[in-house]
Each structure stands twice: as structure tokens, then as C-alpha cells.
């Protein structure tokens, strides 16, 4: 990272967010309030492509390592950005609490995240503020529950078919 | 209905495309504008296919889910005005089988069988990215034996050739060059026959595994590869006569499904779709993995971003892959084909009879699986369709805590509405075909 600001010896920062290293890959940990502003800055600094946006449900694995000042919450939104010119990648991990599973949509920065955010909404039940069309994408629209949550019991859900006689 | 505490009744509304009367013009403009990087006012000035057409002049029709040219169960809702496509919405999920959820319940040893079935036209690339992610978490990515690395490159490139050959076949079929269908499948079969010899299976190999590959190359592999490499140039020249040089073929593809570089980047597309717009972005060259930095090959780039460019890129990428395979043949070292790390690779059969420890390792690996240190990692490689990424979170156990595949087709298919806007419904088939989506990977 070229533009590290206010770095202390202990914790490198990027645009005011803790920056860590995971197997040689740069990871930034913004808060939900910093999320869109940070991404806007990254977009302007050359990260032209949002390669991936997904989520993780840490319900059964709460004790993961996070930088100081970041409180572990149940959900985490993971965004992978790519800088074409600099041939660089950066990853964002944002904590989303179970009590309020909403986060801002990136649609206005990268319209390509539209489908990825829908997938996260479908699989994890996390809502994206400002998303133009927040509906299920992979599961049928009348499906109950969000399958990739850790408390979604596998093998115990009767097969659901739309319009089938039961 | 069982009720976990967080499973609540959901009804988020229809996934279908809504009629113009149900949505505001502002919504349409926002969607168009954000892709074009324009304000809503600027989009309105474009005039075309924005909110100005009357409801009774347009009609919404379904294409798919089972239309021969949708390459699987893809459903497109098209809003048409006469023959012009005003809006398009891909509706996916028909092939969703919860593979990411399944992946959380399979050990790292078994995971390959799961991911290989996602993009079933380039299974070896799926396995490769999964294995590379696991190896990175294990911290052994630099200890993989050289022969395994070169074998991975050989298989990955042959897989790219077989995938692109199938694209040529289906692209020809979709556009009416039906004989191309047979030729493409015929040539692909030659490559698959080699895969069968090496891995035992034509598809879904589970051959590239964390730590190396499953087995060594069989006797006579070199002449088999050379046979393919000698057969293909002549066949590719035939394709040029049959398709590339044909005025009919060009008329049908040139200027169809155009996308600009800015739009392609905004939509996150990768692979031939991004390269067709002139952005020379190929992970093999730009973020090299395996030994691609030692290889001499060209990144094929288009200039118009249309369906013809995407076709031409793929046919020429077959030629580039052949160049790489020749270099792999020259460099293939002797040696071990998997890492001799008893925690990751099972011991050879003979050792089990002699060594108690080998027996224990063997038992542990196949019952419990090997444990992977806690952490998270995202690894991306260039599959025939674009950037395939694997994001794995490990909690220190023998199964991934979360495994997410960044599927290139899933993202690329979102460019469809944009490529189709303002085009003819007859060109829709050409545009879908030029994306080359694999629905198994879109829906996972």
C-alpha cells in the first residue's frame, strides 16, 4: 500500500481503517459507517473492478482474529477489489451484527455487484440499502430461510416446490 | 417447516422483470445510468429504450428456461418493442444445488469432487483454484513438487483448449453453422480422451488435489499430447475457412452485443468479455501463478467489444494455449507428483504394510481429513471464462468453515442486459452464446 496514513507501529492503517495481512493478501477492516466512503476512495485510487462480494456467517466460530478495535459480529461482508493498472488486489471485511443485518449497497459504485449482493441477501438474509432490486436470485422467491446461515439445518428441511400439492 | 430461530418466513417479491407500469422511469434510468457511468439526466437524453415508450407498444416474453441456445437452464425475460430488445433480465437459480453449503460439509480432501462440478467445462481449473487456496492456507504453496506444478499447467491449458473448442461448437450451432457443432465436439473429444487416460475420467476429474496431483502421467502421455497439438492447427484453419472468413458469419457477429471497456469493468466482467473491449487483463500474465511468468504467450485482446471479438479471442486463445503446452512439454521435469507431507498426502500403499505411522496417517486423512490452520484466503486464476476465485475461511478444522467460489459466468451473465439493450431479438442468441456461460457455475 502506497498511501498508508497515520500508521502506528502496531497497526497499519489505510484511509483510517485497520489494515492487516492474510497470507500475503492485504485486508482492510472498515466499520459499516466507513464502508462506502472507503470503497469510493479505493475506486478513485485505481481499484476499478469489484471482483467479488460475499459474506460469511461466523455463528459457530466467533473467536477469529481481528485487529484491535474491530468487534467481531456474527456476519462479515467480504469484498475483493482488483486494480487493473497496478495489478493489485485488496480485500475488505466488514462486520455486520445479527441484530441489524443491513449494509449499504455498492450498486452506485460498481453496478456489477448487483447480482452478488442479491446472492448474499438470498443466502444470508443481509439487506443492502439502496439496492435497486433486492430479491432472491438462486432460491425460489417463496423459499423460507437463508441457506448459508450456520443455523440453517441441513437435511432437515422438507423439499420445497413452488405450487406443488402437499 | 422446521424453525431454527433465525429462519423466518420470507417473501421478498418476484424475481421476474416487472412491467413498465409497475416501476418508475427513474428506476430504469438508474439501472442503465449506473452501468454507463452517467447521471439519470444524461441517460434520459440518450432517448433510446428509456422511459419514453408506451406500455401497450412493448411486450415481455420469456426466453428459456429451456431454450436450446441458453446453454442450460437460463431464463431471460425480454421486453420487446417490435423486434428490438428494450430491457432484459436474466433469471437464474434453476440449477442451484447448494454447492457452497455442501462444501462446508466436505473435508479438504473431498472438496475437489464438489468444486469440479461447478464449471463442468473446465473442471481442472476449478480444482486448481481450490487446491491453490487450500495450499495457501496450509502454507505449503511453495513446496509443491515441480512436476506437479508443470502437470497442473499442462492440464489447465489443455482444459482451456477443450473448453474453447466447445464454445466454438456451440457458438456455431447457435448461429446456424450446425456442422461446426460436430467439428468442435470431435476435437474436444480428443482432448477429453487424453484426460481420461491421465485422470481416469472425461470430466469431473478430482485430479488436481491439495498438495499436488492424484497420479503421475501415464506412459506415452507425451506422444498423446503431441498428437493433439499436431491435429489442431489444421482443424483451426478449417474453422477459419468455415466461420472466421465467412461474410455471413461476420455479418452475424460484428457489431452485435457491444460493450465498452468502462462498462465491462463496472460490471466486473473478466476473461474474453473484458479482453474483447481492449483491456489486456489476463491473470496468467498479470498476476502469474504456477509457472506462467516463465511462459511465452500473447494475451489476445479485441478492439470493438462485440460478439465477433469474443469469438476471435477464444479461437486464438486455443493457439496460445498450444504454444504454452509446447513449452510445458519442453520443461516437464522428473520427480514427485505430490508433496511428501504426511499430514496432507496419503502415504504410498506399500508403506502402509510396513509402517504403523503410515497406517495412522492414511486412516486419519481418509476418515477425519487433514486440518488446515485458521485463516482466510482468496485465490484467483484465469479460467477459460474469466477470473475464477476461491475464498476459503478455515476455523482450524478439517472442513472449510466457508467456501465461496467467485464464478466468472455468474458475473459475466450480468452483462447480458447491457449487451442486449437496443439490439434485435434475433441477436439475443448470438449474445448469449458469446458470453459462453456455464449454468452449473452460475447457479452452483
The first-to-last residue Cα distance of chain B is: 24 Å
Unreliable parts of chain B: 1-10, 48-52
| Shape, per Cα inertia axes of chain A | globular
> Helix fraction of chain B?
40-55%
Full CATH superfamily name of the largest domain in chain B? Cytochrome-c3 Hydrogenase, chain B
Radius of gyration of chain A: 17 Å
- What's the number of helices of chain A? 2
Ranges of chain A with pLDDT <50 over ≥5 residues?
1-8
CA distance, first residue to last residue of chain A: 58 Å
Largest interface, with counts of residues having CB < 8 Å to the other chain, equals: A-B, 60 and 60 residues
Strand and helix map with partners:
The complex is a heterodimer of chains A (166) and B (444).
Chain A: E1 13-14, E2 17-22, E3 25-28, H1 32-44, E4 49-57, E5 75-83, E6 88-96, E7 102-104, H2 113-124, E8 127-129
Chain B: H1 25-36, H2 40-46, E1 59-63, E2 75-81, E3 84-91, H3 99-103, H4 108-115, H5 123-138, H6 146-174, H7 178-199, E4 208-209, E5 212-213, H8 221-244, H9 247-253, H10 261-266, H11 272-275, H12 283-286, H13 307-331, H14 349-354, H15 356-367, E6 375-383, E7 386-394, E8 402-406, H16 408-412, H17 416-420, H18 425-435, H19 439-443
Antiparallel strand pairs in B: 1-2, 2-3, 4-5, 6-7, 7-8
Could you please describe the fold and organization of this structure?
The complex is a heterodimer of chains A (166) and B (444). With 166 residues, chain A is α/β, with parallel strands linked by helices. Chain A has a domain at 13-102: Beta Polymerase, domain 2 (2-Layer Sandwich), CATH 3.30.460.80. Helix content of chain A is 15%, strand content 27%. The longest helix of chain A is centred in the N-terminal third of the chain and has 13 residues, at 32-44. The model of chain A is unreliable at 1-8 (pLDDT under 50). Chain B has 2 domains: 15-94 and 410-425 and 438-444, no CATH class; 99-339 and 370-406, Cytochrome-c3 Hydrogenase, chain B (Orthogonal Bundle). Chain B is mainly alpha-helical. In chain B, a hairpin with a 2-residue loop joins strand 6 and strand 7. In chain B, strands 1-2-3 form a 3-stranded antiparallel sheet. Chains A and B meet through strand 4, strand 5 and helix 2 of A and helix 1, strand 6, strand 7 and strand 8 of B.
Amino acid at each position: 500500500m502506497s498511501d498508508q496514513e497515520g500508521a502506528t507501529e502496531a497497526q497499519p492503517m489505510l484511509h483510517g481503517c485497520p489494515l492487516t495481512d492474510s497470507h500475503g493478501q492485504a485486508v482492510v477492516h472498515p466499520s459499516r459507517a466507513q464502508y462506502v466512503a472507503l470503497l469510493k476512495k479505493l475506486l478513485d485510487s485505481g481499484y476499478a473492478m469489484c471482483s467479488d462480494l460475499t459474506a460469511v456467517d461466523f455463528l459457530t466460530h466467533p473467536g477469529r482474529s481481528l485487529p484491535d478495535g474491530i468487534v467481531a459480529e456474527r456476519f462479515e461482508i467480504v469484498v475483493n477489489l482488483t486494480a487493473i493498472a497496478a495489478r493489485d488486489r485488496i480485500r475488505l471485511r466488514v462486520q455486520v451484527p445479527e441484530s441489524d443485518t443491513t449494509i449499504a449497497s455498492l450498486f452506485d459504485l460498481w453496478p456489477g455487484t448487483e447480482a452478488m449482493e442479491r446472492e448474499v441477501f438470498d443466502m444470508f438474509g443481509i439487506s443492502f440499502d439502496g439496492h435497486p432490486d433486492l430479491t432472491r436470485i438462486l432460491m425460489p422467491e417463496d423459499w423460507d430461510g437463508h441457506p448459508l446461515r450456520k443455523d440453517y439445518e441441513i437435511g432437515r428441511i422438507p423439499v420445497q416446490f413452488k405450487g406443488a400439492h402437499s | 417447516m422446521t424453525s431454527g430461530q433465525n429462519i423466518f418466513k420470507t417473501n421478498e417479491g418476484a424475481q421476474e422483470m416487472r412491467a413498465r407500469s409497475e416501476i418508475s422511469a427513474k428506476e430504469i434510468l438508474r439501472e442503465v445510468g449506473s452501468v454507463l457511468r452517467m447521471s439519470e439526466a444524461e441517460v434520459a437524453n440518450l432517448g433510446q429504450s428509456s422511459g419514453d415508450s408506451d406500455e401497450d407498444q412493448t411486450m415481455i416474453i420469456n426466453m428459456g428456461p429451456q431454450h436450446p441456445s441458453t446453454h442450460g437452464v437460463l431464463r431471460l425475460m425480454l421486453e420487446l418493442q417490435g423486434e428490438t430488445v428494450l430491457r432484459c433480465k436474466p433469471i437464474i437459480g434453476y440449477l442451484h444445488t447448494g454447492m457452497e453449503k455442501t462444501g462446508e460439509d466436505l473435508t479438504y480432501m473431498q472438496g475437489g469432487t464438489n468444486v469440479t462440478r461447478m464449471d463442468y467445462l473446465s473442471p481442472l481449473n476449478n480444482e486448481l483454484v481450490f487446491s491453490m487456496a487450500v495450499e495457501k492456507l496450509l502454507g505449503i504453496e511453495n513446496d509443491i513438487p515441480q512436476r506437479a506444478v508443470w502437470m497442473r499447467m499442462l492440464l489447465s491449458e489443455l482444459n482451456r483448449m477443450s473448453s474453447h473448442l466447445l464454445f466454438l461448437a456451440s457458438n456455431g450451432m447457435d448461429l446456424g453453422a450446425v456442422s461446426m457443432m460436430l467439428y468442435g465436439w470431435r476435437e474436444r473429444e480428443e482432448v477429453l480422451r487424453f484426460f481420461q487416460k491421465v485422470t481416469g475420467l472425461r470430466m469431473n476429474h478430482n485430479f488436481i488435489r491439495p498438495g499436488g496431483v492424484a497420479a503421475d502421467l501415464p506412459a506415452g502421455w507425451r506422444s498423446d499430447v503431441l498428437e493433439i497439438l499436431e491435429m489442431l492447427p489444421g482443424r483451426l484453419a478449417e474453422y477459419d475457412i468455415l466461420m472466421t472468413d465467412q461474410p455471413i458469419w461476420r455479418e452475424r457477429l460484428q457489431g452485435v452485443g457491444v460493450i465498452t471497456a468502462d462498462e465491462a469493468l463496472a460490471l466486473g466482467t473478466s476473461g474474453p468479455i473484458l479482453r474483447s473491449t481492449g483491456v489486456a487483463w489476463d491473470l496468467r500474465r498479470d498476476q502469474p501463478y504456477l509457472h506462467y511468468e516463465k511462459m511465452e504467450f500473447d494475451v489476445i485482446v479485441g478492439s470493438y467489444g462485440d460478439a465477433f471479438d469474443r469469438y476471435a479471442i477464444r479461437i486464438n486463445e486455443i493457439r496460445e494455449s498450444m504454444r504454452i503446452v509446447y513449452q510445458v512439454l519442453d520443461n516437464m521435469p522428473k520427480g514427485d507428483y505430490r508433496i511428501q507431507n504426511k499430514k496432507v498426502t496419503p502415504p504410498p500403499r506399500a508403506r502402509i504394510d510396513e509402517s504403523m505411522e503410515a497406517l495412522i496417517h492414511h486412516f486419519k486423512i481418509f476418515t477425519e481429513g487433514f486440518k488446515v490452520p485458521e485463516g482466510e484466503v482468496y485465490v484467483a486464476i484465469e479460467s477459460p471464462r474469466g477470473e475464477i476465485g476461491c475464498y476459503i475461511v478455515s476455523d482450524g478444522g478439517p472442513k472449510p468453515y466457508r467456501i465461496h467460489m467467485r464464478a466468472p459466468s455468474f458475473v459475466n451473465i450480468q452483462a447480458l442486459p447491457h449487451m442486449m439493450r437496443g439490439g434485435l431479438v434475433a441477436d439475443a442468441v448470438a449474445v448469449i452464446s458469446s458470453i459462453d456461460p456455464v449454468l452449473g457455475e452460475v447457479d452452483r
